[in-house]
Amino acid sequence: MKITDVKTYVLNTASVFVRIYTDEGIEGVGECSPVVQPDVTAVYVQKALKPRLIGKDPRDTDRLWDEMYFGTFKIGGMGAGPNAISGVDIALWDIKAKAANMPLYQLMGGATKKTFKMYKSIGGGSGLTAEEMRQKVEDGYNQGFRAFKIRMDWKYQQDKRLKGDLEMFRLCREWLPDDVPLSFDVNNGYSVSAAISQGKEFEKLGIYHYEEPVLPYNYKGMREVADALDVPVSAGEQEYTRWQFRDLIEVARPDLLQPDVTKCCGITEILRIGAMAEVVDMQIIPHMTQPSIGNAASLAFCSTLRHPERPHEYTGPRSDLEALFQDPITFDGATGTITLPDRPGHGLVIEEDAFKAAIVTAYE
Fold it and tell me: Which homologous superfamily does the CATH classification assign to the domain defined by 3-102+351-363?
């Protein structure tokens, strides 16, 4: 089997999809994180990665990963490069599983579970009042979610609204039933001292996990926060490779690791990160704000872990994304869960008419 073409698309759903074609008619579809400017990522796939893929066997995922990562490291070692590699690598694994006529999770070793409780991840907190965020939580509860996280999106500004953040969390926590977990994502917006003092107040209010409390490169500060608090501290969405996760594990020592398969160079690399986490007995609860292919790949990975018991991140059902697929993977509002399908690959097949209508820019 040989790769014959690679095409990348920026969609009106704020998605970046990669489609890889082969001479045996098996197609793979992947997704890149759009956090880096989507067109930059799409061009990177086409200009830096595609020439290294044409004519190669898509099932040689380790070798192709090495070629993509080390072959382009000097131009894209951080950000756009890993995001682009992620989308390609997910598409390669989709082909590999389809060629084996297996669901992705089976190809990766087999599922320990296939149904996952999802938490509603609600962003934009820095621009909302406490009551506005509480209303969003209520809306999510009415959708069927029974676990939540509120995100501040401070964009690396530190200590801007400490009392207001606590009030927002308090209002949401008091509204929710006691048995519904509520977490808080600082988005790197606190200094170390503020993160510790805030964390102690969050603990009193019943926080479930405390995400990225300090700047992402302050590993020693992260460790100070994690050591000072009882609440599980999480980090990892800003790390793109196993080597960064090695440093995060050894220096920062958060309680929960959060790799994102659409950022951390794809399935090939997240499997390596998962193996490292298992060696040091650290739990992985991935970061994931891409609720279609990214979510499917992330849950397939999580299904192979021994301890995937915490709720998983999900920004919520979106009809515009579901319309892109012949048989979308959907959220069950009656149970607050998502169940992986048994279809080959990651289980999502493009609905061509809807996909064409959603294209903003095609890079072919």
Answer: Enolase-like, N-terminal domain (3.30.390.10)
In whole angstroms, what is the distance from residue 105 CA to residue 79 CA? 27
Q: Burial, 303: exposed, middle or buried (Cβ in 10 Å; 0-12, 13-18, 19+)?
A: buried
Q: What is the pTM of this model?
A: 0.97
As a 3-state breakdown, the chain gives helix, strand, coil percent values, each rounded to 5, of: 45, 15, 40
Q: Are 323 and 354 in contact (CB under 8 A)?
A: yes
What confidence score (pLDDT) does residue 308 get?
62
Is 106-339 in the same CATH topology as 3-102+351-363? no
Reported as a single tens digit per residue, the pLDDT across 216-250 is 999 999 999 999 999 999 999 999 999 999 999 99
15-68 tens-digit pLDDT = 999 999 999 999 999 999 998 789 999 999 999 999 999 999 999 999 999 999
- What is the enclosing helix (H) or strand (E) of 209? none
* 17, containing H or E segment: strand 16-22
Residue range 197-213, pLDDT digits in tens: 999 999 999 999 999 99
The domain defined by 106-339 folds into TIM Barrel (3.20.20)
